[in-house]
Every structure is written in structure tokens, then in C-alpha cells.
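HUMAN: Forgive my ignorance: could you write out one protein's sequence and C-alpha cells?

ASSISTANT:
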Amino acid sequence: MVDLKSAQPRLSIIGDVAVDLVLGPVDGWPAIGTETIMQRSELRAGGSGGNTALAMRHLGVPCRLFSQVGDDTFGGWLAGEFKGVNAHLGVARAATTVSTGVIHTCGERTFFTTRGHLEEQSWAQIRPLIDQNPSPGSIALLTGAFLLPRMRAEYGAIVEELSGLGYQIAIDTGWPPEGWSFATRASALGWLSRCDHILLNEIEITGLAETNDLNTAFRRLTPLLRPEAVLVAKTGAKGAAAYYGGSRFTAAAPKAEVFDTIGAGDSFNAGYLAARLSGEGVQNALAAGCRAASAIIGRFPRQAIAPGQLSDLVTPAHAS
């Protein structure tokens, strides 16, 4: 088995980690003042950055994780969940952010998230830990921009600095809580225009492009990006699509029995980036992302996945 902590990682994840409590299913919504017994539950590390780092561990691919936890009991527990990951987790003077995800019988989710340490996370805390001379082809993945207000204010400078250090830049912004306002859209496009791998879901891409049609969104956004950039749309159970070099690529998601889809996009990011780091092109990387997402969200509880257990999902041979 690969020693994921000592192996030289070429992926640095800079973003959000939090505590996730996942439970369900629930049919409809309970009346106020009642109690509902849930059939399934799991308390686990989460956040977009945290989910991606754990998915990389499942795939047996080393990575570094740069984030923060709170200065409470949950913060200590959360830091301990990243065993086997080269994690650099500062401690913020705030309670740890907790997100409760309620799974509905229809397959949708409802989230309740507390304010907490994510609001205190800063680039000043993380920057001294970043390698000045990364290995050739190294990628820095930025996650959770809209949940990290102090970092968000510096995002343009962060992207520029990481690029100047020699990293390819991958980004998964997530959905802005305030929606795609004019100011939010302008800020995001400023970041994306300097990135190499843009990893958004279909709703985020169409919202950013002010359209309901994904093909129209691709046509509107790609002229605003670097010529060599890959624009990826994660399309849920359908799989994923990408636009690169004037061509459109698609990959179907393997069918899977799924109770909990939380973190599916983050697991896709891990599979896609692991494949790109191994030298695969866009088409094979999309397929690897879809395989990784389907395999990981098909497991419940996910804490039972051993490090490296899903390593064969990155290679194209797995699909043949």
C-alpha cells in the first residue's frame, strides 16, 4: 500500500473542511415539535476540500490539504479524521463549522450549516506552508470560495500567486449563498479566467452564464477563459461534460445504488485530478471522475473505505 503521508504529493488542496452529520431518509418535512427516528446516520469529516482530500485517500493518491479547524472538541476530532493525508490544519479562534445534511426519500438534500471557523480562515495562515518550487505539473485546487469570506476577499491575488509559483490552478467555487449577483459573477469570472481546470456543477455553470442551457453556458464562458483551460460541468447522475480546445467531451456516470450524494462533486474532482496528474487527457479524466464519484457515494458509511481501496478507478483500463 502507498504511504500517502510520506509520498511526494503533486496536488495541494486549499479550502474548507467542516464536520458533516448526514442522516435520513425523511419523507416530506416533520411538523414542528415532533420527533423523527432516522434509519441511517454518519458523523464524518466534510467540506469540499475535506471531501476531496478523503477521496484522494480512497484512490491511493497522495495530496496535501491546507485548511483550518475550530478550537473546540469538534475541531480536535475533525483534525484526527485526516489520518493518512498530509494535512496542515491551523486552529481558528471559533467554534468548528457543522453542517447537517438531511436526506429526503426523493433523493434531494436539505442542509443546515452553522457559522464558525470557516469565517476566520485566512490566506495569511496558509501561505507560509505552500511550496515555493512545486514538482513539475503540480496542481493547486481551490475549494469553498464562497464559504471563506476572508480568503474570498483575496482570491484574485491567491490565484495569481499560486500561478506565479508554478502551480496549475483548479477551482471549485461552489454555489454563492447570495446567488449570482452582478458583483459575484464579475469576481468569479476574474478568478476563473486565470485557472486551468474549472470544476463546477451544471447549475453553477448555467447560473454563472445566465442561461438554463449548458451548451449555451459553454459558448458564453469559454471565450472568457485561458485557451488551454478545461471547463468541466458535473451533471449529477448523468455524468460530466467538458469543453476544451474547441471540442466538447462527455462521460456517463456508472449506475450505483445511492443513499447519500453529499460530496459527489468533490469525489469527482479527486478522480478527475488524479487522472490528470497521472498523464490522462480530458476524456479519460472525466470518466475517472465519474467512476470515483459513483463508487464513493455508493458506500455508506464512507468511513469504511480503506486508504487506496479504490485505486484502480483512476486508470482507463478499469473501464475496459
